[in-house]
Protein backbone atom coordinates (compact mmCIF):
# COMPACT_ATOMS: atom_id res chain seq x y z
CA UNK A 1 0.00 0.00 0.00
CA UNK A 2 1.32 3.44 -0.87
CA UNK A 3 -0.60 4.85 2.12
CA UNK A 4 0.80 5.26 5.61
CA UNK A 5 -2.17 5.29 7.95
CA UNK A 6 -0.50 4.38 11.24
CA UNK A 7 1.38 7.66 11.38
CA UNK A 8 0.14 11.22 11.78
CA UNK A 9 2.78 13.09 9.82
CA UNK A 10 1.61 16.65 10.34
CA UNK A 11 1.01 17.80 13.92
CA UNK A 12 1.86 21.31 15.04
CA UNK A 13 3.44 21.99 18.42
CA UNK A 14 2.72 24.15 21.43
CA UNK A 15 5.06 26.72 19.85
CA UNK A 16 2.71 27.54 16.97
CA UNK A 17 1.37 31.09 17.49
CA UNK A 18 -1.78 30.37 15.49
CA UNK A 19 -2.38 27.05 17.23
CA UNK A 20 -4.17 26.42 20.51
CA UNK A 21 -0.96 26.68 22.53
CA UNK A 22 -1.68 23.36 24.25
CA UNK A 23 1.49 21.53 25.22
CA UNK A 24 2.97 19.30 22.52
CA UNK A 25 2.99 16.33 24.89
CA UNK A 26 -0.81 16.42 25.03
CA UNK A 27 -0.90 15.88 21.25
CA UNK A 28 1.53 12.98 21.53
CA UNK A 29 -0.59 11.45 24.32
CA UNK A 30 -3.64 11.80 22.08
CA UNK A 31 -1.85 10.05 19.20
CA UNK A 32 -0.95 7.14 21.53
CA UNK A 33 -4.59 6.94 22.63
CA UNK A 34 -5.65 6.75 18.96
CA UNK A 35 -3.21 3.91 18.31
CA UNK A 36 -0.73 5.64 16.00
CA UNK A 37 2.64 3.94 15.66
CA UNK A 38 4.33 7.30 15.20
CA UNK A 39 3.89 11.02 14.77
CA UNK A 40 5.79 13.84 13.17
CA UNK A 41 5.77 17.03 15.17
CA UNK A 42 6.17 19.71 12.56
CA UNK A 43 6.34 23.44 13.18
CA UNK A 44 6.20 26.31 10.70
CA UNK A 45 9.69 27.58 10.11
CA UNK A 46 9.83 31.38 10.64
CA UNK A 47 9.78 33.63 7.60
CA UNK A 48 13.06 35.23 6.51
CA UNK A 49 13.96 38.59 8.00
CA UNK A 50 12.90 41.24 5.48
CA UNK A 51 10.10 39.15 4.01
CA UNK A 52 6.99 41.34 3.58
CA UNK A 53 4.78 41.00 6.65
CA UNK A 54 1.60 39.10 5.73
CA UNK A 55 -1.64 41.08 6.21
CA UNK A 56 -3.10 38.79 8.81
CA UNK A 57 -4.19 39.29 12.38
CA UNK A 58 -2.39 36.10 13.35
CA UNK A 59 1.37 35.73 13.47
CA UNK A 60 2.15 33.23 10.71
CA UNK A 61 4.91 31.25 12.34
CA UNK A 62 7.01 31.36 15.45
CA UNK A 63 9.77 33.95 15.42
CA UNK A 64 13.31 32.86 14.73
CA UNK A 65 14.10 32.92 18.46
CA UNK A 66 11.73 29.96 18.94
CA UNK A 67 13.63 27.59 16.66
CA UNK A 68 16.20 26.36 19.17
CA UNK A 69 13.82 26.09 22.17
CA UNK A 70 11.34 24.24 19.93
CA UNK A 71 13.99 21.76 18.84
CA UNK A 72 15.27 21.31 22.35
CA UNK A 73 11.86 20.69 23.88
CA UNK A 74 10.49 18.51 21.11
CA UNK A 75 13.62 16.38 20.81
CA UNK A 76 13.47 15.81 24.58
CA UNK A 77 9.87 14.60 24.17
CA UNK A 78 11.05 12.32 21.39
CA UNK A 79 13.44 10.61 23.81
CA UNK A 80 10.96 10.57 26.65
CA UNK A 81 8.27 8.86 24.54
CA UNK A 82 10.58 6.51 22.65
CA UNK A 83 9.24 3.34 24.28
CA UNK A 84 5.60 4.26 23.63
CA UNK A 85 5.51 5.94 20.22
CA UNK A 86 8.03 7.00 17.62
CA UNK A 87 8.25 10.78 17.42
CA UNK A 88 9.95 12.57 14.55
CA UNK A 89 10.70 16.26 14.75
CA UNK A 90 10.90 18.79 11.98
CA UNK A 91 9.58 21.89 10.32
CA UNK A 92 7.06 22.91 7.71
CA UNK A 93 9.18 24.92 5.27
CA UNK A 94 7.71 27.59 3.07
CA UNK A 95 8.93 27.52 -0.48
CA UNK A 96 9.66 31.19 -1.18
CA UNK A 97 11.00 31.89 -4.66
CA UNK A 98 13.87 34.37 -4.41
CA UNK A 99 14.61 33.42 -0.81
CA UNK A 100 16.24 30.06 -1.55
CA UNK A 101 19.69 30.98 -0.21
CA UNK A 102 18.27 31.87 3.18
CA UNK A 103 16.13 28.74 3.20
CA UNK A 104 19.11 26.51 2.40
CA UNK A 105 21.16 28.19 5.10
CA UNK A 106 18.41 27.53 7.68
CA UNK A 107 17.93 23.95 6.46
CA UNK A 108 21.65 23.33 6.82
CA UNK A 109 21.63 24.76 10.32
CA UNK A 110 18.67 22.74 11.61
CA UNK A 111 18.69 19.71 9.31
CA UNK A 112 21.09 17.60 11.36
CA UNK A 113 18.64 17.74 14.28
CA UNK A 114 15.44 16.95 12.41
CA UNK A 115 14.02 13.62 11.26
CA UNK A 116 11.21 14.82 9.03
CA UNK A 117 10.02 17.89 7.16
CA UNK A 118 7.25 19.28 4.99
CA UNK A 119 7.52 21.53 1.97
CA UNK A 120 4.66 24.01 1.62
CA UNK A 121 3.41 26.78 -0.58
CA UNK A 122 1.47 29.22 1.60
CA UNK A 123 2.64 32.29 -0.34
CA UNK A 124 2.34 33.30 -3.97
CA UNK A 125 4.25 36.37 -5.11
CA UNK A 126 5.08 36.89 -1.41
CA UNK A 127 1.38 37.21 -0.61
CA UNK A 128 -0.25 34.75 1.80
CA UNK A 129 -2.93 32.48 0.32
CA UNK A 130 -3.62 30.45 3.46
CA UNK A 131 -5.93 33.07 4.90
CA UNK A 132 -9.57 34.14 4.77
CA UNK A 133 -11.21 34.67 1.37
CA UNK A 134 -11.36 38.37 2.18
CA UNK A 135 -7.60 38.72 2.67
CA UNK A 136 -6.96 36.55 -0.39
CA UNK A 137 -9.11 38.82 -2.56
CA UNK A 138 -7.71 42.03 -1.18
CA UNK A 139 -4.00 41.23 -1.09
CA UNK A 140 -3.31 38.53 -3.65
CA UNK A 141 -5.94 38.73 -6.39
CA UNK A 142 -4.81 42.17 -7.68
CA UNK A 143 -1.42 40.56 -8.41
CA UNK A 144 -3.08 38.28 -10.99
CA UNK A 145 -5.39 40.99 -12.40
CA UNK A 146 -8.30 39.59 -10.40
CA UNK A 147 -8.42 36.46 -12.58
CA UNK A 148 -8.95 33.30 -10.54
CA UNK A 149 -7.66 31.00 -13.24
CA UNK A 150 -4.35 32.90 -13.18
CA UNK A 151 -4.24 32.42 -9.42
CA UNK A 152 -4.64 28.66 -9.77
CA UNK A 153 -2.00 28.45 -12.50
CA UNK A 154 0.37 30.58 -10.42
CA UNK A 155 -0.19 28.19 -7.52
CA UNK A 156 0.50 24.99 -9.47
CA UNK A 157 3.55 26.53 -11.14
CA UNK A 158 4.90 27.51 -7.74
CA UNK A 159 4.27 24.06 -6.27
CA UNK A 160 6.04 22.52 -9.27
CA UNK A 161 8.95 24.93 -8.75
CA UNK A 162 9.10 23.86 -5.09
CA UNK A 163 9.40 20.23 -6.14
CA UNK A 164 12.19 21.04 -8.56
CA UNK A 165 14.00 23.56 -6.33
CA UNK A 166 17.52 22.78 -5.24
CA UNK A 167 17.30 23.29 -1.49
CA UNK A 168 20.34 21.23 -0.61
CA UNK A 169 20.75 17.94 1.22
CA UNK A 170 18.15 18.73 3.89
CA UNK A 171 15.34 19.61 1.51
CA UNK A 172 12.05 18.43 3.06
CA UNK A 173 10.83 15.31 1.30
CA UNK A 174 7.07 15.50 1.79
CA UNK A 175 4.78 17.91 -0.07
CA UNK A 176 2.17 19.52 2.17
CA UNK A 177 -1.46 20.06 1.25
CA UNK A 178 -0.95 20.13 -2.54
CA UNK A 179 -4.28 21.80 -3.26
CA UNK A 180 -4.19 24.59 -0.69
CA UNK A 181 -5.30 27.09 -3.34
CA UNK A 182 -8.78 25.59 -2.95
CA UNK A 183 -9.02 26.51 0.74
CA UNK A 184 -11.96 28.89 0.03
CA UNK A 185 -13.47 26.92 -2.84
CA UNK A 186 -16.94 26.83 -1.24
CA UNK A 187 -17.31 30.61 -1.46
CA UNK A 188 -14.96 31.04 -4.39
CA UNK A 189 -15.61 28.15 -6.80
CA UNK A 190 -12.48 26.87 -8.51
CA UNK A 191 -12.24 27.54 -12.25
CA UNK A 192 -11.41 23.88 -12.86
CA UNK A 193 -9.82 20.78 -11.35
CA UNK A 194 -6.41 21.25 -13.00
CA UNK A 195 -5.88 17.51 -13.11
CA UNK A 196 -3.05 17.67 -15.62
CA UNK A 197 -1.13 20.23 -13.59
CA UNK A 198 -1.58 18.24 -10.39
CA UNK A 199 -0.66 14.91 -11.98
CA UNK A 200 2.51 16.43 -13.44
CA UNK A 201 3.49 17.74 -10.02
CA UNK A 202 2.88 14.38 -8.38
CA UNK A 203 4.84 12.49 -11.04
CA UNK A 204 7.73 14.92 -10.71
CA UNK A 205 7.68 14.55 -6.91
CA UNK A 206 7.55 10.75 -7.20
CA UNK A 207 10.51 10.75 -9.58
CA UNK A 208 12.47 12.53 -6.84
CA UNK A 209 11.36 10.05 -4.17
CA UNK A 210 9.25 12.64 -2.43
CA UNK A 211 6.07 11.81 -0.52
CA UNK A 212 2.66 13.45 -0.31
CA UNK A 213 1.19 14.76 2.92
CA UNK A 214 -2.25 13.10 2.81
CA UNK A 215 -3.55 16.28 4.37
CA UNK A 216 -7.19 16.00 5.32
CA UNK A 217 -7.51 19.32 7.16
CA UNK A 218 -9.42 21.01 4.32
CA UNK A 219 -12.41 18.82 5.19
CA UNK A 220 -12.91 20.59 8.49
CA UNK A 221 -12.40 24.08 7.09
CA UNK A 222 -15.72 25.73 6.56
CA UNK A 223 -14.90 27.25 3.19
CA UNK A 224 -13.04 24.22 1.83
CA UNK A 225 -14.93 21.08 2.91
CA UNK A 226 -12.72 18.69 0.94
CA UNK A 227 -9.34 17.06 1.60
CA UNK A 228 -6.33 19.02 0.37
CA UNK A 229 -5.30 15.98 -1.64
CA UNK A 230 -8.14 15.71 -4.17
CA UNK A 231 -10.31 12.62 -3.85
CA UNK A 232 -9.76 11.71 -7.52
CA UNK A 233 -6.00 11.74 -6.93
CA UNK A 234 -6.27 9.54 -3.83
CA UNK A 235 -8.29 7.13 -5.98
CA UNK A 236 -5.67 7.08 -8.76
CA UNK A 237 -2.95 6.39 -6.19
CA UNK A 238 -5.07 3.68 -4.53
CA UNK A 239 -5.41 1.96 -7.90
CA UNK A 240 -1.67 2.28 -8.56
CA UNK A 241 -2.28 4.45 -11.58
CA UNK A 242 0.15 6.92 -10.03
CA UNK A 243 2.84 5.71 -7.67
CA UNK A 244 3.78 7.88 -4.74
CA UNK A 245 3.90 7.30 -1.00
CA UNK A 246 1.26 9.22 0.98
CA UNK A 247 1.59 9.82 4.70
CA UNK A 248 -1.59 10.74 6.53
CA UNK A 249 -1.50 14.25 8.01
CA UNK A 250 -4.11 15.82 10.25
CA UNK A 251 -2.40 19.24 10.21
CA UNK A 252 -3.61 19.49 13.81
CA UNK A 253 -3.10 22.86 15.46
CA UNK A 254 -4.75 21.62 18.65
CA UNK A 255 -4.95 18.35 20.57
CA UNK A 256 -8.47 17.45 19.52
CA UNK A 257 -7.58 17.50 15.81
CA UNK A 258 -4.78 14.92 16.10
CA UNK A 259 -5.76 12.05 13.80
CA UNK A 260 -8.66 14.05 12.41
CA UNK A 261 -9.63 12.96 8.89
CA UNK A 262 -8.00 9.53 9.11
CA UNK A 263 -11.32 7.71 8.98
CA UNK A 264 -12.36 9.66 5.87
CA UNK A 265 -9.00 9.04 4.17
CA UNK A 266 -9.31 5.27 4.74
CA UNK A 267 -12.87 5.34 3.44
CA UNK A 268 -11.80 7.08 0.22
CA UNK A 269 -9.06 4.50 -0.34
CA UNK A 270 -11.35 1.56 0.42
CA UNK A 271 -14.03 2.82 -1.94
CA UNK A 272 -11.44 3.02 -4.72
CA UNK A 273 -10.14 -0.51 -4.17
CA UNK A 274 -11.67 -3.86 -5.01
CA UNK A 275 -13.18 -5.27 -1.76
CA UNK A 276 -10.41 -7.88 -1.36
CA UNK A 277 -7.68 -5.25 -1.07
CA UNK A 278 -9.13 -2.72 1.37
CA UNK A 279 -6.86 -0.85 3.76
ZN1 LIG B 1 -0.32 26.48 10.76
ZN1 LIG C 1 0.59 24.32 5.98
Keywords:
279 residues, alpha/beta, TIM Barrel, 8-stranded parallel sheet, two-stranded antiparallel ribbon, 15% strand, globular, binds zinc ion
Detailed description of the structure:
This protein has 279 residues and is of the alpha/beta class. The protein has one domain (3-277): TIM Barrel (Alpha-Beta Barrel). It has 8 helices and 10 strands. It has helices at 24-33, 67-80, 100-110, 133-140, 148-164, 195-207, 231-238, 262-272, and strands spanning 3-4, 7-11, 38-44, 86-94, 116-120, 123-124, 127-128, 174-175, 211-215, 246-249. The strands form 2 sheets. Strands 1-10-9-8-5-4-3-2 form an 8-stranded parallel beta sheet. The protein has a two-stranded antiparallel sheet with strand order 6-7. Strand 3 (38-44), helix 2 and strand 4 form a beta-alpha-beta unit. The structure holds zinc ion (2 copies). Residues 92, 120, 122, 176-177 line the site of one zinc ion.
Ordered list of secondary-structure elements with their pairings:
Elements: E1 3-4, E2 7-11, H1 24-33, E3 38-44, H2 67-80, E4 86-94, H3 100-110, E5 116-120, E6 123-124, E7 127-128, H4 133-140, H5 148-164, E8 174-175, H6 195-207, E9 211-215, H7 231-238, E10 246-249, H8 262-272
Parallel strand pairs: 1-10, 2-3, 3-4, 4-5, 5-8, 8-9, 9-10
Antiparallel strand pairs: 6-7
Helix pairs in contact: 5-6, 7-8
The chain binds zinc ion (2 copies).
Amino acid sequence: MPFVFDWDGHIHSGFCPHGSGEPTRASIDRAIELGFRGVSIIEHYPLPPGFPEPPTSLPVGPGIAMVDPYLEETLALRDEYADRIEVRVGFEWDYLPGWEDWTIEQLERTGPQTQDGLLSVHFLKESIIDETAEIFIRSYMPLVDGILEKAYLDYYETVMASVKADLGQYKPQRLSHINLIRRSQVVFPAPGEFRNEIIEIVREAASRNMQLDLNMSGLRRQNCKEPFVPVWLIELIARNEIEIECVFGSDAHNVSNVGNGLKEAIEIVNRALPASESA
